[in-house]
Amino acid sequence: MESLAERLKAFSIDEKQIADILKNKKICESIEKVLNLSGINSADKKRGNLLYGIATKITPSIEEFRQTLTKYVVEDKIANQNHLDYTISYIDTAIKKEGSIATEVLEKNCGIGVNMTDAQISQKIKEYLTSKKEVLEKIRYTLSISDYLKALREIVPFAEGKLLSTEFKVQLEAIIGPETEQDKQMKADLLKKKAKEESNKHKKVETAATEQEVEEPKKKLGDIFNARDLASSRNTPELIKQRNEQFGDVILTRFPPEPNGYLHIGHAKSINFNFGIASEYNGQCYLRFDDTNPEKENMEYINSIKDNVKWLGRTPFKTTYSSDNFEILYQCAIKLIKKGFAFVCHQNKEESRKFREQGIPSPYRDRPVEENLRIFEEMRLGLWDEGAAVLRAKIDYKSPNTTLRDPAIYRIRYVSHPHAGSKWCIYPLYDYTHPICDSLEGITYSLCTLEFEIRRELYYWYLEKLDMYRPYVWEFSRLNVSNTVLSKRKLQALVFGNHVKGWDDPRLLTIQGMRRRGYTPEGINAFCDLVSVTRNGNENVIGFQLLEHCIRKDLDNTTKRTMAVIDPVKVTITNLPDTYEQVLEAPDFPTQVERGSHKISFTNSVYVEREDTQLKDHKDFFGLAPGKVVGLKYAGVVKCIDVKAKDGVVTEVVAEFIKDDPPKPKTYLNWVSAKEAFDCEVRIYNSLFTEDPTSSDKEFLELLNPNSLVFKSGAKINKNIIPELQHLSRFQFERQGYFAIDFDSDITKKTFVWNKIVGLSDTGKQKALQRVAQA
Ligand code: ATP
Ligand code: MG
């Protein structure tokens, strides 16, 4: 007797597919039956696959039609998968409803034997589209392709999907002509309009939420969101009572990162929102690691996330792990199986994706509860290969909300888990885990970003079927910042592609990058506060300048001033002796002199900024040029006598100090005396991108700015500040901006590297100048 593998080969089934089939006893039995019934020994690929299709798709309730279906395929009365699927689903429905079905009725309603040729199908499509010509000419390529395809499906129900969609395109083009640039514009406009409507809708909700909460905390929180519209989202009084007995009648929120990467400023917004709401209403916020994906997660990420949350000034109520609930999640899955709400499926990923897309039930959907329980247990015990069995929820295989089309709950992975160790080889999926963990932790408000909105129904489905307490789900918009990228995928591309120096590169808006650059948690939180209540018309892309503004505002009040020169030129003051030294008091905060001062020495040789010198004077230039009278901040006024240069580059300035009755200069320059100057390196950061990636059509990696990092060696700081310098120490360099000591500095060896945090705002610069001028 020939082996099954050999037989399948004769029916032109792929080697790989054969290997998959052989792994599964049920399918083997089923296909063997079909082959026996077919009465043939070989077939071409198309027919072979149709017979295989019968074996996988037939359900126990229509077993008696196995022979009939096989016959139709062998006689070429069913000639494509689509026709087969249609027929199976027709029989299935009819049997469930009527209990039986007459052959003539079946054949008539399923078009058995009346196979249309491709040309006939194409003709039908043409006829239909021609009947819609008038509308089509008006709306052109903004038409909803899926609506048209759906309508055509009714007309040619058995046509193969691929043929249908290609013919649709060909015939459409024949009627309204090919898609033009103008059409593309029309489509883009429509999309933009829709996106805007959507985002306005969300924004209204979001602002309403934030504004109203402030006035009337408890009652209003939550009612605003239509989560309550879902019957499945309602808690019974008993559930509320149980929840409150366990957790008290307090607000609980959670920040639920997946430990598969480093946090960025978008996460800071989520942290700010979750912890902020909780503390505002005397509640608490958990830090929960949503760790269901062992392959992608690790301890390094877990630790860095903990650090980041702490650095942002937050103390979690508790730090928890979804994986701590693996046992409960497993028991819940068994509960679902027992209630007939979950089944084990052996379709491979590709197949199940296809079925879900087409709204077709899995062939395993209706297997008995006992069998599901047994195989699920076998899965847990490691008796099935990865990918050979998946536990799926039994919800609605053709729901318009595709997340409800019998989604996966558990999959097999033979890897150990960074937190749970090696106890498990089946892991629950995020969509299933999240609501259960929220409920178990007594979360009252489950705040998440808008891309989860579509999953809200699924979230409540699990909790309803498990009869568990249901938190309010709120979605808020994702934060994007102009001129930069935030998603983990893009950040990874930048880091692993060596376009930046690591996750903490100061050009990135990762929490680590911002920290290293010198941004403060207070500044970042102020920014988060501001954006969550801002109605920003720009689809929640917030300007980088707003972030810089918040950082600057915080630093202005917390950062001491000092004078430094980044690109130095020496000034020799000829009318002061070499021994001259005047000790000056410079205020730490010029607008709040009561906060203290520091001493600096003025001598006959000082450094000034190169951009404050010029070979020839000009009326719009206020720095040092021959003949010009200029102030040196805190020290007095000098007159420039001569500017020396080599190859057009200024090498030295010669000046005289005006001791008596100096005129009022237009500008006071920052300077450092040669006696107190100390060399260090300064790193200046420009935008990572030459064009804003949040609005550009180009791929973000094509937009990288080659000059995003500028090194300046030989900058001069005043050595008096050295005792105060540590990693991350911050100063305002007067007239320049804010700077922080980078981790590349060696404090004990006194090699210092500064990062420019942010420049002074133009108005800030102006004001500083005015103040000095008035002084
Ligand atoms: P990304 O897509 O940027 O890689 P993520 O959504 O995969 O991030 P998670 O670890 O799943 O990252 O996110 C944890 C929490 O932070 C979630 O509640 C998520 O909604 C929220 N969050 C992530 N990115 C943003 C953002 N840009 N703006 C606001 N909240 C965000
Ligand atoms: Mg995520």
Describe the structure.
- This protein is α/β, with parallel strands linked by helices.
- The protein folds into five domains: 4-109, Orthogonal Bundle (Helicase, Ruva Protein, domain 3); 217-324 and 432-476, Rossmann fold (3-Layer(aba) Sandwich), CATH 3.40.50; 326-428, Glutamyl-tRNA Synthetase, Domain 3 (Glutamyl-tRNA Synthetase, domain 3), CATH 3.90.800.10; 488-560 and 680-771, Ribosomal Protein L25, Chain P (Beta Barrel); 564-670, Ribosomal Protein L25, Chain P (Beta Barrel).
- 41% of the residues lie in helices and 17% in strands.
- The strands form seven sheets. The chain has a seven-stranded mixed β-sheet with strand order 12-25-26-27-23-24-13. Strands 21-18-19-20-14-17-22 form a seven-stranded mixed β-sheet.
- Helix 8 (118-131) packs across helix 11.
- The relative contact order is 0.06.
| CATH class annotation of the largest domain | Mainly Beta
Task: Return the domain count.
Answer: 5
Task: List ligands, each type once.
Answer: adenosine-5'-triphosphate, magnesium ion
Going by helix content, strand content and strand pairing, the class is: alpha/beta
**How much helix is in the residues?**
40-55%
If helices are DSSP runs of H or I spanning 4 or more residues, what is the number of helices? 26
Please name the fourth-level CATH homologous superfamily of the largest domain. Answer: Ribosomal Protein L25, Chain P
Architecture of the largest domain in CATH?
Beta Barrel
EC number: 6.1.1.18
GO molecular function, one term: ATP binding
GO cellular component, one term: cytosol
Catalytic activity: tRNA(Gln) + L-glutamine + ATP = L-glutaminyl-tRNA(Gln) + AMP + diphosphate
